[in-house]
Amino acid sequence: MAFGFLIVSRLLPLVRMFGRLPDGSSRAFAAVLNAGTRPFHSINYLGPVGGALVFHDPRLTHQLDHTIARLHRRLDAESPEALARRMHFPVGWDPFFRDTMTLADVYAYGMQHYDFHREQLTIEV
User: Fold this and answer.
1) What are the backbone dihedrals phi and psi of residue 39, each rounded to the nearest 5 degrees, phi first?
2) What is the pLDDT of residues 95-104, one digit of tens each?
3) Residue 93 has what DSSP assignment?
4) Which top-level group of life is the source organism from (predicted)?
5) Residue 40: is it exposed, middle or buried by C-beta count within 10 angstroms (0-12/13-18/19+)?
6) Distance linking the first and last C-alpha atoms of the chain
């Protein structure tokens, strides 16, 4: 869950920047990223494995609390115009990435990511 929210923190500046540029800029950026989907999946696997060695137990809890609080403060400060900014995303990278996503969509991504993995790990009794 923490890593999904950390990803949101990294995506927000990209959407803010590309949301101000011509549509073709983010389309080209997403195309380049999509071309690197295969190596991305290896990095996407190894990153959390390494991260779990550094961030665990109380340290992970603190990081998660800090990240969510920071995202909440930023979301509260966003204008409707900012939340409507959008950019193209590399749809091959994540099942929740759509061709274009708004800043509001990116804020919601953290919970989508969490809900998906929670469902994967939930055992029905």
Assistant:
1) -65, -30
2) 899 999 999 9
3) S
4) Bacteria
5) middle
6) 23
